[in-house]
Amino acid sequence: MRYCRFNNDRLGVVRDDMVHDVTSVLDKLPAVRWPLPAYDPLVVALPHIRGDMEAAADRVTPVPIATVKLLNPVPNPSKVIGAPVNYHAHIDEANADQQISFGKTIKTIDHYGVFLKSNSSLSGPSEPVPVVEKDRRTDHEVELAAIIGETCFNVPEEGALKYIAGYAIGLDMTIRGPEERSLRKSLDRFSVVGPYVVTADEIPDPENLDLEILVNGQVRQKSNTSHLIFGVAKLISYCSNFYTLYPGDIIMTGTPEGVGPVQAGDVMHAKIEKVGEMTVAVTRRSEPLPPPAPAV
Ligand code: MN
To answer: How far is the CA of 54 from the centre of ligand 1 (A)?
Structure first.
């Protein structure tokens, strides 16, 4: 099954590029009280309400996915994990390009471990990514994003895929520079997730998927997840040795070679085999602030 969040926080089931509004099923989720849980209530409930979502989808008239505003389908993870230099060919290009390496010799993920991106950097495909620093490169990084489905800690690599609820495309947008990754990769809308979540049963082997991104119609990155240094299962095992992973946690698994700058006005088109494709615009940071939290 494929599900999306769209327009004004509607829940959709996606079939053949048509969105079926199944928002009514959200009534089955338990009411959330303060303090908010460290997991995504929809992801937790997914195994139980999937049938209801499919049944609700059967009953409504769908609309083309191209006509809706697509938001990040996993809005409330406890964390967004990034995997640095997790493709060998990306290390080679990083070391060859001073605008990426900034004088450092780039090593592999074994050396760096993983990093965290702020949850407030999450956005969906229909929300343009603002480029902020005029004198710095802001690069696209297309990545397979794995969404954790079950709480887990210290799990072995073998069997680790069973903790995944589903997959999406992730864009780990990045300002190049010497600062910490958590600064350069956590700007508003620098963690694009979409176009929807594809449940894990549809992707038995996430470690053999073609992925690519085009900018203004030109292919920039094109690879396959079989070239990951830490594969998806190893990443889950590795992360779970340090953090408890909660339902809804997003792991961006790393980007292949071909990263490059984007500018306001550019259009990115990302695609992952069996997952889907999405178009994301690049803009200047002139967006108004989101509305304040409602008064009680
Ligand atoms: Mn990345």
So the answer is: 33
